[in-house]
Design brief:
single chain; about 600 residues; Rossmann fold; Jelly Rolls; 2 domains; seven-stranded antiparallel sheet; 14 helices; about 25% strand; elongated; NADH:ubiquinone oxidoreductase intermediate-associated protein 30 domain-containing protein; NAD(P)-bd_dom_sf; NADH-UbQ_OxRdtase-assoc_prot30; NAD(P)-bd_dom
Length: about 600
């Protein structure tokens, strides 16, 4: 069969190949590049199929640009193609070999022959990664952050903490806490590999504000809130922490947590483009005569935009029956563990195709495969969940194969084939010319999307520059924004970076934070107008709940308790308040309300 192209050719076919593609590794040589120019290079719009290879009644036929109905009207067409034995194109076989593997290695050839004679099955070299899906807590030694960590650990959920001081973190959070030592204000400390396995982030990092006259070792004055002391910035500036630090953090975790609109893997979308090195991989590798190519058509996509084009002629002559295009192995594996599946944007022809994804750099290996049906003459988006990918080797399902590992994708293949899996045939297969325009391959996040990045900001961030506001009635941070190095201004700039990042987010703006217990009734609001207080414990619980709620996704809101500042809030340990369902609050939130609306309106008025 066709899946991995090592099938031994039947000895009854005198014109068939005496051997199949060898498992040869290494980068492509200059020879390979030379061979690829004629029909494999994706940039050649004028690419023509080579010399006539499909003989119909003794005459060469191409007709690539005609409708299928024009050349499938005769019932004898299929019979004529499949009945004839045709000469095997050894040159095209070696072009394929060179394109993907470079010049053949005698040692690999001997190794291949020995393996076939011994009957041993190929070894699947990939190893399933042992990493879990972590929540990363940034600012984990702060008042909110350490409570987030504590709550996750009580629930037995995997959590990592990004901290600057390892010794301090272990004393505060415990000796067995998983730490990433880094500083968001120093981009060089945020190494991408440290964030492997991080799927969600709670950012509680904040500029440090403390009393001018100093504080106790346990920061007792700080814990009371800024209402009770004259504040000043301690350590790094608001610009470094709230803005530059946010930019560095987003860049560090973006690939790990994923984007709302998905990750472009191939194709052309808006101002983005991503091209891959595709090559034809047809049934010539098993003695057949089918032939295909892949091109970039700069005006053939939707609205005259660029698109890829997989086209060719498929024949069952010489026991063949498939064409395909396959990418060279990527220079480094692509981690798609933040996503849930592949989405293809294409113009169908009514036939069934396959997407084959490999997670091993070995040539002759399991391909994780999904078939999909197309609608003739229509552009359509086809979603293939990772869970639908079937482990296939030489057109047979491998029942004991490892599950698909989205963190280690190394190549793609598109196929049009007579064969399905396990002896079944493609019910839509017809011989002759075909065309499949393919504008994009993306990884997508399934609906409903939940937040991947929850950020603890502050109420009041839009107020310092709001016209007509009575500053005497505002919290100290609003009144003293300038004296505090524009702390709220840079917090707002940091929020904007999140909103513009493409990462699904929630921005929580607490009013003045206290050391009181959670449990008081709450007020959620939007527009940045309320004042009051709320406990750090409550904010930690809200952040954790937001990660699982689609209602909290892409929302910005303020929150306070109903208890006045002048009244302390306590909880009877013998009769604690019931746990809250924060979804009740999240469901009241609306999109697009940030409090910046009044600033924008005033700017227009001016």
């Amino acid at each position: 069969m066709e899946s991995c192209f090592f099938t031994t050719i039947s000895s009854s076919s005198s014109s068939s190949s005496p051997f199949s593609i060898f498992s040869i590794q290494g980068s492509s040589s200059n020879v390979g590049r030379k061979f690829s120019k004629s029909c494999m290079h994706p940039q050649l719009l004028s690419c023509q199929l080579p010399k006539p290879f499909l003989q119909l009644n003794g005459r060469p036929k191409y007709r690539l640009n005609q409708r299928r109905s024009a050349y499938l009207s005769s019932a004898t067409y299929k019979e004529t193609i499949s009945a004839e034995k045709q000469g095997w194109d050894l040159g095209r076989f070696f072009k394929t070999l060179y394109f993907f593997n470079g010049p053949p290695s005698p040692a690999k050839i001997v190794e291949f022959i020995i393996e076939k004679l011994s009957g041993s099955s190929p070894e699947e070299s990939e190893k399933k990664m042992g990493t879990s899906d972590y929540v990363l807590v940034v600012g984990a030694t702060g008042g909110v952050g350490r409570r987030v960590v504590s709550n996750f650990r009580k629930k037995g959920l995997p959590v990592k903490a990004l901290v600057r001081n390892e010794e301090k973190a272990r004393k505060m959070l415990g000796p067995d806490i998983e730490l990433i030592v880094g500083d968001i204000t120093k981009e060089s400390t945020l190494v991408a590999q440290y964030f492997k396995g991080v799927k969600k982030v709670i950012n509680a990092a904040s500029v440090i504000i403390g009393p001018k006259e100093g504080d106790t070792p346990d920061r007792a004055k700080y814990s009371q809130g800024v209402k009770f002391f004259e504040p000043e910035i301690k350590g790094d500036s608001p610009e470094m922490v709230e803005y530059i630090g946010m930019k560095n953090l987003i860049n560090a975790v973006r690939e790990s947590v994923g984007l709302r609109t998905g990750k472009l893997l191939f194709g052309f979308e808006d101002q983005l483009s991503k091209e891959l090195d595709w090559g034809a991989l047809d049934d010539v590798v098993m003695g057949g005569v089918s032939e295909s190519t892949f091109q970039i058509d700069r005006t053939g996509g939707e609205g005259g935009k660029p698109t890829g084009l997989f086209k060719g002629i498929v024949s069952t002559a010489n026991n063949g029956g498939f064409t395909s295009i396959r990418t060279k192995n990527f220079s480094s594996p692509v981690d798609l563990s933040a996503y849930d599946g592949f989405e293809l944007r294409l113009k169908g022809d009514g036939c069934r195709y396959k997407l084959i994804v490999r997670t091993s750099t070995d040539w002759d290996t399991v391909g994780y495969t999904a078939s999909f049906d197309t609608i003739g003459g229509q552009w359509q988006s086809i979603r293939l969940p990772f869970s639908s990918l079937r482990p296939v080797f030489r057109a047979r399902t491998v029942s004991d194969a490892l599950p698909f590992n989205p963190s280690n994708v190394v190549s793609f293949q598109l196929m049009f084939s007579k064969f399905e899996y396990d002896g079944k045939l493609n019910p839509t297969f017809v011989e002759g010319p075909f065309e499949l325009p393919l504008s994009t391959i993306k990884a997508y996040i399934k609906d409903p999307i939940t937040p991947r990045f929850v950020h603890v900001s502050s109420a009041g961030v839009t107020r310092p520059d709001r016209p007509g506001i009575d500053l005497s009635k505002q919290p100290p941070a609003v009144r003293l924004n300038k004296e505090l190095d524009f702390v709220l201004t840079f917090k707002l700039k940091g929020e904007d970076l999140i909103r513009e990042s493409g990462i699904p987010y929630t921005i929580v703006r607490p009013c003045a934070l206290t050391e009181e217990p959670a449990g008081a009734d709450l007020v959620f609001d939007q527009g940045d107008n309320i004042t009051g207080k709320i406990s750090r414990e409550e904010i930690a619980l809200i952040c954790i709940a937001a990660l699982e709620s689609p209602y909290a996704c892409d929302k910005t809101f303020e929150v306070k308790s109903v208890v006045p500042f002048s009244e302390p809030f306590t909880v009877d340990p013998e009769n604690p308040p019931p746990e809250k369902d924060y979804n009740i609050y999240f469901q009241t939130l609306k999109d697009g309300i940030t409090g910046k609306e009044s600033l924008e309106q005033s700017a227009i008025a001016v």
